Amino acid sequence: MAVRIHPSSVVHEKAVIGDGTQIWLFNQVRENAKIGKNCVLGKNIYVDYDVTIGDSVKIQNNVSVFVGVTIEDGVFVGPHVCFTNDKVPRAVNPDLSLKGLDDWTITKTLVKTGAAIGANATIVCGVTVGKWAMVGSGAVVTKDVPDHGLVLGNPAKLVGWVCACGERVKIDEGTRRGACKCGRVLVKTDAGVALEAKAS
Asked: What percent of the chain has pLDDT over 70?
């Protein structure tokens, strides 16, 4: 399936865009950015140079994905989500000279497969948002979010667990298992929470 790019958007000739991806109004995709297959980028989105975005990612209006951010397959990024990439941002050096490209350090952020980030959330750089995790609207994420974790608030705190389908799942501390109404089961181990493997 062909790539669709709205005439108002600017996509650098050195960007790589996967088949079936749709880039809507007033977007900018910088050089060496890689956007996977079947993605949907809404209105007024900025994708910085060297950013990697996986397949089947949906990014809603008014999101900037800055250099240092990696988004894996199947991630949902809600409107007005704010990513950062500098732990100690300054406009100038101590001598008041304007900072240049070599005067700061990129701090990387990873959003893993299937995660969802709600509207107006802020992802402070240096964190990993785990597989199938969910970040509530308006949350400020300052620490790693575990796989299947649900985080809310400022600063964001772990308040529960979510299935791959998005529904909340209560995990019994005794059995360390929790069933979702969709039929999937989450299992808590020393390594974290994961979907129970189906018997073949």
From this structure: 99
pTM: 0.96
- The dihedral through the CA atoms of 169, 167, 36, 119 has a sign that is negative
Q: Beta 122-123 vs 140-141: how paired, if at all? A: parallel
Tell me which of 30-34, 99-103, 175-179 is least confident.
99-103
Given a cut of 90, is residue 191 above it in pLDDT?
A: no
Residue 17, token pair as written in the block: 């865009």
| Average of per-residue pLDDT across 55-72 | 98
| Rounded mean pLDDT, 171-200 | 91
* Residue 97: exposure state from Cβ atoms within 10 A (0-12, 13-18, ≥19): exposed
